[in-house]
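Sequence design from tokenized structure. All designs in this work follow the same two-part layout: the structure record, then the generated sequence. An example of the structure record is given first.
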């Protein structure tokens, strides 16, 4: 049997990681400014994380949600306190797409409506409802194309208010910082006006914090820069530092009904151990503050570089979620960064280099990346 060939791969086999570095099977070291697509939050193979998972696996790796799982309760308690949402409820799942899928279902159960508003260039996942709210026709199969979603320009508040006033919108789903959309930031004025319009028209507001959340922006959630409090918040990626996990933070005004939602693997013992280890490291190493401090430092250095490098058109982002607009295709920079400078980065669209490093990135790491980046730009 062969693998189903749907991924465009770099011919590099990564076999080891530590902190902000990874190594291939030839023992070549790479600086990781990609974080496995924003998944690695506390750094590769953090010793505390490894120890906690080993201990849990020796005790119990999995049992179903038909019995009490005290680790789930610990995750809910600690996540509520660290995020500022201790009055919310938590439903644990396996991935970001599954989190958005369940958030949209909850919104529809709650309102009895079926229409969704999402932003142009949004990415919310690849499963049925999540992909329908994703602005990329190439990945929406005919069976998913059910006409539930209206896409509107990010930050165009009047356009969203007009649609909400029709009274048939089940949910609004937004990313406070668009990832796949190219590190586009929602403005506070837009977000606050949107939240008010949702309240006025009985629409559920969902913030997708799967990529921009969990400390990456320099606050625990990126929407906390915007002065809003959504009804539902979806998380994944950094919650488990690579162990598959996701969740939905649910406003207290949603009353749970037995059997309304469900999952086989969601919130399993090993996943919860991973999530608790991540929160341990967040607390001990102050990684949210580090994301803010080092992120602002890196953004500043990139803007300085922009003054002398004509290939850089714009630098934008918050914390350690940064986009660099280029006047050349990102592959012209990303490929030599990997093969010549041994540095991983992400991308968006055609011309955006996307930086999503582990939140333990240091200023020395940032300086090293800028020097590698400058070297490649100088060769173009």
């Amino acid at each position: 049997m062969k693998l189903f060939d749907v991924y465009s791969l770099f011919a590099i086999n990564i076999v080891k990681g530590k902190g902000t570095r990874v190594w291939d099977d030839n023992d070549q070291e790479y600086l990781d400014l990609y974080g496995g697509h924003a998944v690695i939050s506390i750094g590769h193979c953090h010793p505390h994380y490894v120890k906690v998972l080993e201990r849990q696996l020796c005790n119990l790796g999995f049992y179903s949600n038909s019995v009490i799982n005290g680790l789930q309760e610990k995750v809910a308690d600690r996540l509520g306190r660290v995020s500022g949402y201790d009055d919310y409820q938590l439903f644990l799942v396996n991935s970001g797409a599954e989190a958005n899928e369940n958030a949209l279902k909850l919104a529809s159960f709650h309102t009895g409506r079926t229409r969704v508003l999402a932003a142009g260039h949004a990415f919310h996942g690849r499963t049925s409802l999540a992909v329908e709210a994703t602005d990329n026709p190439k990945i929406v199969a005919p069976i998913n194309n059910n006409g539930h979603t209206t896409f509107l320009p990010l930050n165009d508040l009047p356009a969203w208010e007009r649609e909400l006033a029709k009274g048939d919108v089940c949910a609004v789903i937004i990313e406070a910082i668009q990832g796949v959309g190219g590190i586009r930031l929602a403005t506070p004025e837009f977000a606050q006006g949107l939240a008010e319009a949702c309240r006025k028209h009985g629409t559920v507001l969902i913030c997708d914090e799967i990529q921009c959340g969990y400390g990456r922006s320099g606050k625990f959630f990126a929407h906390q820069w915007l002065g809003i409090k959504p009804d539902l918040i979806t998380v994944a990626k950094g919650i488990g530092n690579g162990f598959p996990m996701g969740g939905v933070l649910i406003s207290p005004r949603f009353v749970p009904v037995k059997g309304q939602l469900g999952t086989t693997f969601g919130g399993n013992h090993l996943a919860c151990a991973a999530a608790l280890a991540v929160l341990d490291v967040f607390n001990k190493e102050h990684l949210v503050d580090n994301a803010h401090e080092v992120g602002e430092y890196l953004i500043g250095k990139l803007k300085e570089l922009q003054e002398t490098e004509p290939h850089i058109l714009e630098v934008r982002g918050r914390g350690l979620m940064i986009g660099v607009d280029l006047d050349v295709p990102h592959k012209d920079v990303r490929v030599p960064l990997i093969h010549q400078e041994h540095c991983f980065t992400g991308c968006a669209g055609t011309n955006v280099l996307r930086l999503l490093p582990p939140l333990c990135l240091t200023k020395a790491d940032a300086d090293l990346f800028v020097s590698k980046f400058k070297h490649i730009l100088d060769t173009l």
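Residues 286-352 form a domain with the Aspartate Aminotransferase, domain 1 fold (CATH 3.90.1150.10). We note this feature because it recurs in several other targets discussed in the main text.
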